[in-house]
Amino acid sequence: MELLPRSPGEFGSARYWDRFFRQRGQRPFEWYGAFPELCPVLQKYVRPRDKVLVVGCGNSELSEQMYDVGMCEDIVNIDISDAVIRQMQERSGSKRPKMSYLLMDMLQMDFPDAHFQVVLDKGTLDAILTDEEEATLAKVDKMFAEISRVLQVGGRYFCVSLAQTHVLKKAVKYFSQEGWVVRVHQVAGSGDKQQFVLPVFVYVMTKFRKIPGSAPQILEICPEEQDKPMRVESVERLVAAVKDRQHYALLCSQLSKTPCGEQVSLDLCDKESGRPRYTLHVVDSPSVKPSRDNHFAIFIIPQGRETEWLFGTEEGRRQLATSAGFGRLVTVALHREQHYEGMAGIQAELSGKVMELAPPGLPARQQVPFLSVGGDIGVRTVRHRDTSPLSGEYVVEDVKGDGTCYFRRLVFLCNRNVVQSEARLLARTPLTGQKKRRKDKKKPNPAEPPAAIDKSYLCCEHHKAMVAGLCLLGGPDPVPALLAVLVVGLGGGSLPLFVHDYFSQARVAVVEIDPSMLEVATRWFGFSQGDRMRVHISDGLDYVAKLAAEGTILQSIPAQYDAIMFDVDSKDLTVGMSCPPPAFVEKPFLQKVKTILKPEGVFVLNLVCRDAQLKESVLATLREVFPLLYARCIEGEVNEILFCQPSPKGCQDPAELGARARALEGALRQPGRPWDSSYVLADMLQAVKIL
Predict the structure, then answer these.
(1) Termini Cα distance of the chain
(2) Which of 320, 434, 542, 572 has the highest CB neighbour count under 10 A?
(3) What one-character-per-residue DSSP string does 80-110 give?
(4) Residue 594: partners with Cβ closer than 8 Å, 6 or more residues away
(5) What per-residue confidence (pLDDT) applies to 653?
(6) Closest by alpha carbon to 336, among 307, 369, 298, 376?
(7) Cα separation, 642 vs 590, whole angstroms
């Protein structure tokens, strides 16, 4: 039996609908949105005494159900199909004496002006607005004009729709420009009984007298899970909000039917602010043998630890899901702008939403466990937040790591999943002779002076490797008597601080383009300048070019630096290399770097490049400039540390390299000077390869 039209245009044909309803018979046809789902929205606005017009009524039971539950009785139903009108007159008949069915075209209605308080359209606009051809749009304009004419001021036009973009835009633009208030409700789904994957929406458009001039548009969206509407500033934002909900519904439908081959991520946003509150990753583990108790689990990542390899990378999350032993694991990252009421509060907030992401085959009424590290949600305290003209918005925050250790981090919010700088905090100790007050439960004041920075500890593995590379310096002594080091990129200052403190004769020059970073490093990361440590606020490209030019003009000036270290990030996130900026690895500039480097010196570069072709190009350029090139990959990270030497006579024997590293570490480890026992220089160079 052919019930669907040969072309979308037939949806507007009376002949098509007569044939449709004759073939279908008496069975009610509901396009979408059954009464139980629509009722909560309708009962908010429809009053028992309202006079209601249903346009394009078909043989839907909606009017009958509204009548039967006492929502309203004065209902007029119209349709262009004579067959369906006769069917419905016979079906309702004497059962509903105050309700009528009339054969009428809604594009040219016989009713007087301002005759109804409610106009209800269930799928009719969707059926007519099948394309954006001029004739179709003209028909829709006529439909809207007639609805506006027969509706009283203060009355409401309800449009039940799947909210295709062109349909939603047309309706919202038309009525908002007429001065009407537009509110879009998402209708709660009906679970397994829902015929459509896409969610159903109801546009509630309230008629107001049009005010001359440019009156502000009132546009709102009311998601299914909340009663309070959210105001949006434009038609585009309203359409985008609806699209987000449609994409989410499609995602949930897909995840409920088949395992996901690739990890799926999505943000759940705060209802009030619209800002992301949770970031979810759905990870399926095909290798896990399913049983009743291991289908599905939720893992709450402790605050501040979302950037760690285990939680912040696809491979890490895959390993986490496998080790947890669940077929599907949803990891949940918490955002720094949000406040959370502990694990129980998060569980209560997420329980309903995460069940929409459940895998196929989950047993009914199965309890889904919420997991975490140590059973808590971690600690994150934002110490400072500001905006730099060069680096954008950034935060300094203290987070709790494993055990009792706390760390201070600098994060640029343009790339919030990357920790720009990190330092370990020293535990506070009470003053000598001060008695501990058991009853003092005063919470720490975020404005109090920051805890002391543990300058002996390098948090970043790439910084450890960069320092270990100094054993490549030539000469009989592990630590040259007068070591001149240039560091481009300050960040929190951990790298230059360590070199300054542990190489007691070193003179360190730091180049930083952003003056805000010097302030951050000084105030929050324990950085300070002195006779052996100076910061130059300058573009690293200009600073190196100037030094190279001076050496060329005044040939009596020798090469200046024993070591040059580049640890500078790129602000251009469209390039496949986030460190350094591409200009820092172009051949003319690298030749300038070589000019200001001593012949037996070492140039150390932190390279973060996800583009394999671009990375190979960078390595080829480096090999053209520096005869000897070593590489050290950082396990679990994209970082690769490159050690470049201007002379081919450098150390190429792994055993000798290890001996040099041990000798350097021995020289740096002095009595009374703290040293991180896990930091073994020889280990940092064990995996170095010569390119």
Answers:
(1) 71
(2) 320
(3) S-HHHHHHHHHHHGGGSTT-EEEE--TTS--
(4) 603, 625, 626, 646
(5) 72
(6) 307
(7) 13
pLDDT the model gives residue 189: 64
Taking alpha carbons only, the member of 7, 64, 68, 70 closest to residue 30 is: 64
pLDDT tens for each residue of 136-152: 999 999 999 999 999 99
The pLDDT, as a whole number, for residue 438 is: 45
**Per residue in 20-45, is it b (16+ CB within 10 Å) or e — as a string?**
bbeebeeeeeebbbbbebbbebbeeb
Beta strand pairing status for 507-512 and 597-609? unpaired
Hey, what's the torsion of the CAs at 428, 432, 437, 440, to 10 degrees? Answer: -40
Phi, psi of 355 (to 5 degrees): -65, -20
Cα distance between residue 113 and residue 512, in whole Å = 71
List pLDDT tens digits, range 190-238.
444 445 567 899 999 999 988 776 667 899 998 765 667 888 889 998 9
If we measure between CA atoms, which residue out of 528, 556, 561 comes closest to residue 544? 561
CA–CA separation, 188 and 198 (whole Å) = 11
Those residues of the chain that have pLDDT short of 70 are 1-31, 189-197, 213-215, 224-227, 290, 292, 428-450, 474-479, 481, 551-559, 650-652, 686-688, 691
Measured between alpha carbons, how far is 500 from 219 in angstroms, rounded to an integer?
Answer: 59
Which of 271, 523, 273, 269 minimizes the C-alpha distance to 385?
523
Q: Exposure of 308 by Cβ count < 10 A (0-12 exposed, 13-18 middle, 19+ buried)? A: middle
Assessment of whether the complete model's pTM goes beyond 0.85? no
Supply 268's token pair: 């759940």
Cβ neighbour number for residue 357 with a 10 Å cutoff: 20
> Which of 256, 276, 255 is CA-nearest to residue 266?
276
- In this predicted structure, what is the pLDDT of residue 51? 96
Closest CA to 566 of 620, 491, 628: 491
Residue 22: per-residue pLDDT: 52
Contact 562, 485 (CB under 8 A): yes
